[in-house]
Structure prediction request, 117 residues.
Amino acid sequence: MPAIINRELGNIIIDDNVIANIVGISAMESYGIVGMASKNATDGIFELLRFENLSKGIKVNTEDNQINIELHVILEYGVKISTVCENIIERVKYNVEDLTGLTVDNIEISVEGIRLK
Prediction:
């Protein structure tokens, strides 16, 4: 469901895919992340997504202008998982709220794999 911002001169409608793209780009700016992950339906295996498909590893749910975000990520080997995830959450929350003017209610990160560089 898209986010709707009511203004004096009309409404602004922001699709969940736009928010997902903001989330993906913001997350990729964080140190220690290799990329987004997408589950292969036939094998049940997670695969690393290319930059142009980042939003496939992200689920955005917007209700009453509150945004809930779920990310599936693959991290770099040797990084502290909790620290990287905290950094991703802070960066994603800041960028989404700054660019859309909406409030991020919850961000959930699922680490689906670790990759050697």
